[in-house]
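Give me the fold.
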Amino acid sequence: MADPQTQIQSQTQRPASADPAAHDNASPAPPVAPDALGDRPVRLVTFDLYDTLIELRPTRWERLAAACARVGIPADVATLRVADLVAEDYYTEENTIQPIRDRPDREREAFRLAYMERWLAAAGMPHDPTTVADLRRAYLAEFEADPLGGEYRVFTEVMPALGRLRAAGVKRAVISNADADVTALCQRLAFAHEMEAIITSALVGYEKPDARTFRAALDHPAIATAPDDAVHVGDQPRSDGVGALEVGMRAAVIDRYGRQDDAALARIAPGAIRVGSLLALADAVVRHNTARATA
C-alpha cells in the first residue's frame, strides 16, 4: 500500500478487479502448506512497508467512519474495512499508470474523489458526487484534527519475525511505494537495523509492481540475491503479488483481517500464497529451508 497521506491526495471506469463481490468468500488465512514455497531455499524475504510492517492509527476505515459521523451518515467500520480493498485496487491500477504524486493538482484531486466514490460504493453507502465531496472534506478534517496526521505503529509480530529470519541466516529488506525515502521512518520505528536494504520507489524512479523496483532490492550490494531465491510479502495482491511474481520471486500476501478471497487471489496473482501474519511466514520459511537442507 502507498502512504495514506498520498492516498487521500482521473475518474475512470471501475477496473474489473475492483469488485466488492470478489471478497465475499474471504476467511482467515490458512496455515502455510509445506510445499507452498517451492523447491529452492529462501535466502531473502522482502517486505512492503505500509499495512505490512506498519499501520497508521487510527486506520483509514476508522477515519472514514468518523468522517461519516461528522456529516451524519451511518457507517459500519467492519464494512468499510472490507470495502477498503476495492479502493486500494483502484489506487494500484491508477498508480501503475502514472504515480499519483506526479500528477497535476487537479488530476490528483479528481483521483482522490474517484477513490472515495469507489470506497463508498463498495460499502453499499451513498456515493453521489455531493456526498463524495462532503465525505472527502470530512475525511481530510480527520487528518487535520491531529497535528501529526496520526501515528504509525509496528505490528506486534514484526520484530519476532525479523529476528527469526535473521537467526536462520535469511536476508531481509523493505520495498516500499512512497513519495520520499522511508529510511528515517523505519529508523524511528526501530526496525531499520534488521534490514539489509530499504528501497523506496520515489528514489528508484518506479512504482511496484514495476519489476525495476524489485530489481533494485535484488541487485543491492548488501543483498545480491537471485529472484528465485527470494520471497516478497505485502498486503496488495497487485502491486506486491503480481510485481514479485513477474520478476521471478515467490510472493505472499499478508491478510491479517481475513479480507482476501483465495479464488480472487489466484486469479490476480497465480502462485501467491496468503498468510495471516509475518511470523507465520517467517516460521514457514525456516521450516522450508530446514527441509531443503536435510532432503
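The two ends are 37 Å apart (CA to CA).
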